[in-house]
Amino acid sequence: MKKKSSSKKYWLILLALVIIAVAAYVIITNNTKNQASLADLQTTPATRGELVVIVGATGTVRANQSAVMTWQTSGRISAINVGVGDKIASETVLAELLDSSLPQSVILARADLVTAQRNLDNLLNSNLAQAQAQLNLANAKDAYDRALWSNPQGNTARTTDQNKIDAARAAVILAQDRVADAEESYERVESRDDDDPLKAGALSTLANARQNLQKAQQDLTYLIQAPDAEEIAISDAKVALALAQYEDAMREWERVKDGADPADIAAAESRITALNATINLSRITAPFSGTVTEVNAMLGDQVTAGTQAFRIDDLSRLLVDVQIPEVDINNVQIGQSVDLTFDAIANKQYQGKVTAVANVGTVQSGLVNFKVTIELLNPDEQVRPGMTAAVNIIINQLEDVLTVPKRAVRLVDNQTIVYLLKNGAIVEVPLKIGASSDLISEVLSGDLKEGDRIILNPPSSIMDMDFSGGPPF
């Protein structure tokens, strides 16, 4: 029995030794792993200093103004006056076409221009139009008065002037007496042969006397009788026509009495402008001052309308257009400073400023962006239109603020935190973050002070690690 009891006690002691050995191994291993994990942590101190808040974007450099010049008619190039790199003023003639190669309409425009200029000169300096208008007005007034005078008045006699009626009756009596005398004279020679001169003369006198009597009787009848409806309608129409002509003449006189009508002068000037535009189709002129950046023409080339010839860029100002997301656009203001770098220009930074901010956004791939224009303030010969620029718009600049690296900030349970390394242990510290740049963020509040070691790469599961020196269980 004593032997069994000693054996059991032996095994209990052995088991205890094994447990102690395992525990020692775990502790040593855990401490070794923890020390190894601590060695892997990257830390940086919390610092106080300047924070530049930026909005970043990329864009393409462009000139202040650009134009591609094309021929507007056909012909053969007879002169090229500029080359690539030449600085030119506005309206400089860049190239011309041979006159004999131009379309007929362009050639004839030069002849028409002479006539158009002469017509404008007459409008401005000649009094002929005024004199003619005055004469036309006088004639139209006289014609209207005559039409009114001769217009019958309804169903009454054409005149109430008794003197006219008496004169007409007297003319009838005199005509009747002449007819009687002519008949008596004809009766005396009526028996003679028809070819007798005396008979022929008497017959002619009688015929004229009878015609005069008929006319005198018609005149009397016209004066004392009322006109019929047809005569009244015709007379009224003549009065209306005379009045319309008189009114037209009056309007024309009013239009030119003080000199040429401004509308006529404007029309004549427009005609000259149109002809000059047609003539100028034979040449290409610079629309603005700038630099010739492309020449796509050679002497003797046969061109047609639409053929490209030159490109001109105003390089006095270089601009970059960038698209800013809607979440950042309200932070961007005209006049803000900008830092620019270029892939094509190594180790050099340029400065700029915001000159325009779009009021309306555009949708691209489902995202709303706003166009912002930036002017380079210190461009040099290395910066060229078409280059890609990386743009940082400085929207705020803070001095003497406590900052932490953005890569160290985590969001845990809707709370912003950083992890610090204190006395060999990882400590979680809640913070309130303010403004941020690409790399750092402002600390508004929290248990953090300058110099604290901030962990940049905290482990994915902090609870898996034990830095107390004992086993995790």
Provide a descriptive summary of the structure in words.
40% of the residues lie in helices and 32% in strands. The protein has a domain at 47-61 and 312-457: Elongation Factor Tu (Ef-tu), domain 3. It has a 6-stranded antiparallel β-barrel. The protein has helices spanning 2-40, 104-125, 128-150, 162-189, 197-224, 229-256, 262-279, 326-329; strands at 43-45, 47-70, 75-80, 87-88, 93-97, 283-285, 290-295, 302-303, 308-325, 337-342, 345-357, 362-364, 367-376, 388-405, 410-412, 415-422, 425-436, 440-446, 453-455. With 473 residues, the protein is an alpha+beta fold.
Notable traits:
473 residues; single chain; 4-stranded antiparallel beta sheet; 19 strands; alpha+beta; 6-stranded antiparallel β-barrel
